[in-house]
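Thread title: Can someone regenerate the structure for this chain?

I was given the following input by a collaborator and told the matching structure tokens would be attached. They weren't. Posting the sequence so someone can regenerate them.
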Amino acid sequence: MEPSQQCQDAVSTNCMILSSSLRYLLIVLFIINLVGFWIISALWGVLCALPHYIGATSTADGSHSAVSMGSAMYVVGLVVETLADYQKWQFKSKNPGKFCDVGLVSLMCVYLVFLIAKFEI
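Best answer:
Regenerated them for you:
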């Protein structure tokens, strides 16, 4: 076998080893990212449920004004979010495939109202 053929065989073998190593590295990184995603999701779920856990285990009576204010904030948030979703649905039915940039969705206040309604900030 001549030297140029030996060199080509060596390069081909090294490329195959490098290729399989890169595939292995990509699989490992994917698994690490997947596990990280689920850990963060679990922690976020616990954090979001914490107010409920604290309220459900509390023996003290809640303040009537705080309950009324929290209920009002929830209703306002629900109405605004529902209206924004309706406006977005109307826009998408008339303009399929386009980004909705009209109505309450365009103001980006929907996300703030969503946070207020969900967490009663």
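The radius of gyration is 28 Å.
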